[in-house]
Design a protein that fits this description.
The chain contains four helices and five strands; from the N terminus they run E-H-E-H-E-H-E-H-E. It is α/β, with parallel strands linked by helices. The protein has one domain: DsrEFH-like (Hypothetical Protein Ychn, Chain: A). It has a five-stranded parallel sheet with strand order 4-3-2-1-5. The longest helix is centred in the first third of the chain and has 16 residues, at about 15-30.
């Protein structure tokens, strides 16, 4: 890998376009050989639940579920803010493949070495 990249995703069902573009961007980072993490917080944590992205299609992008699956299949990491997750009373047994729960210290660890990031 030629460096790291982080996408911070605070949008979910409240803004499907932002959520979709976050995964378009994350997949683009993987395509240029960046070790890429999507850190989900706020409403973005809802996308950590299986089935939540099903049926979401913001054209001209690929369907959101496909983008998320391709991201994980390509080696991308999904980190879900545990505090935001707990606040929304989501089910830890229903996490999408590749997603892990972690707190703010994990985000600091990811970004602490100057890793570039974008937020959606």
């Amino acid at each position: 890998m030629s460096g790291k990249f982080c996408v911070v995703l605070g949008s979910g069902p409240d803004n499907w376009e932002r959520a979709t573009i976050a995964f378009v961007t994350a997949n683009a980072a993987l395509a240029v050989d960046k070790e890429t993490t999507v850190f989900m917080n706020f409403e973005g944590v809802r996308l950590s639940q299986k089935g939540q992205a099903d049926g979401v299609h913001v054209e001209p992008s690929e369907p959101l579920a496909n983008l998320m699956e391709a991201f994980v299949a390509g080696g991308g990491k999904i980190v879900v803010c545990s505090r935001c997750f707990t606040r929304r009373k989501l089910d830890p047994e229903n996490l999408v493949p590749g997603a892990v729960l972690a707190g703010a210290p994990k985000l600091v660890e990811i970004l602490g070495d100057g890793t570039p990031s974008v937020s959606y």
